[in-house]
Design a protein that fits this description.
The protein is α/β, with parallel strands linked by helices. 38% of the residues lie in helices and 15% in strands. It has 2 domains: 49-186, Peptidoglycan recognition protein-like (Lysozyme-like, 3-Layer(aba) Sandwich), CATH 3.40.80.10; 195-277, PGBD-like superfamily/PGBD (Muramoyl-pentapeptide Carboxypeptidase, domain 1, Orthogonal Bundle). Its EC number is 3.5.1.28.
Length: 281
Amino acid sequence: MPCLPLACLVVVGLFTLTACSGTPTTESRDGYRVDHSYQSTAQSSRVRHLVLHYTDSNARRSLRTLTGPRVSSHYLVTREATPRVYQLVDESRRAWHAGASAWQSRSNLNDTSIGIEIVNRGPSDTPSGRTWTPYPAHQIDTLIALARDIIERHDIDPVDVVGHADIAPQRKIDPGPRFPWYRLYRAGIGAWPDADRVAAYRADFMRQPPTLEQFQRALAAYGYPVRVTGRFDALTRDTLRAFQMHFRPARYDGFPDTQSAAILWALLEKYRPEALADIPQ
């Protein structure tokens, strides 16, 4: 038997290893076979948004609700000393968590988002006023690890990490003013304005505040589903309340003020400068 050149032996060996590797390139389906030998590079994730919610109930009840026939989420994060992360819907599937919603140019965000429900009872009305359930540090640590993983795999823009209230301000208030958005930002998750730019804009707006129409245009430019009417209507107030819960939780009355305006303009300058340029001054 003649000796094969070394290069041929290498090729034969590699072919044998590939054939025996146990990784099939074809898949049998009902009535046909699919060949997976080639993969196009012209593709991207369907996921554009990460939406955070609170459950308004305990873990057991939340699981029962989220595995029922009406609502769902991709993940549920519990609040035990060692929180558990339940995956209830595969990320490739559409979970029913956002409902009627909009952000920037998209609506029905169930189609383009991953939803995380966080076990938290939300608000309680007491004789001394409304109180909000805090989020324990260990629960947020777990959430940060989960959110980082999702954001990295789907390349989600910081502005597109939102709360349910941001995308449905007339229906929802979660995850509420006790949610630690700034802590998430410091961990590399979501958007936050730079303090020096907020201070600079606030000084400007103390001299000449933006008009209500400019405020509405700025909110819409950032992503909020608000109509530009020049009137202080219910949608504008609810949208401002959602914005304030997210970025100025110390006061979220829904009324326009110079600090809220300064935060919004600083956010646009940092994350949407082209949109800021389109707002009439």
